[in-house]
Amino acid sequence: MNNKSNNKNNKAGRLIVISAPSGAGKTTLVKALCESDPKLMVSVSHTTRPRRDGETDGIAYHFIDIDSFMEMVDSDQFLEHAKVFDKYYGTSRNGVESQLNEGKDVILEIDWQGAARVRYLMPDCNSIFILPPSLHALETRLTERDDDDPTTVQRRLRDAKNEISHYKEYDFLIINDKFEAALSELRDILASLRENRQVQQADLSQFVAGLIAET
User: Assuming Cys at both sites, which of 42, 166, 187, 201 could form a disulfide with 112, CB separation 3.0 to 4.6 Å?
Assistant: First the structure.
């Protein structure tokens, strides 16, 4: 589904917001997309959560303390920010704008609330929502991931319904049933945006309604 065209100056990069419920495969798709496209990059968020083993500052996240984070909030340095499980996450306005001015196409992996804020501040952005093929498939993925206990998995499924209910706010929808097919569709959308051409997608409103109605 495509809701708008983009007349942005081709000399600057494009800002692309991608959202999805946890477990829908967004991060894996974005990683594969960026590995084959040197002009494309993912914005690195700031966070107050501790760095985990194997994570590198400036690559996984910009790790900062809470006082520094709040200073950035007070000085309006974030395009969007949120508190998740008592830790803060934010997207640097200057970081994104400098990358765009260098001609890079920048992806923001954020939730629907952050996406709404970014669309308000940067209306030339385009947005993509990644859908699971079913809530049952999403539950299976979350369980097999083995990162969360059963209670947390059920909470994530409830959150997923709320996240999915905002699908109409996005320019494009992709169902991540078969990974390679979803990746191909994602590449086609990116190519269309770079060429300023329209992409016609099937109306998925009935599919999404059924997805949200699943129990």
Answer: 166
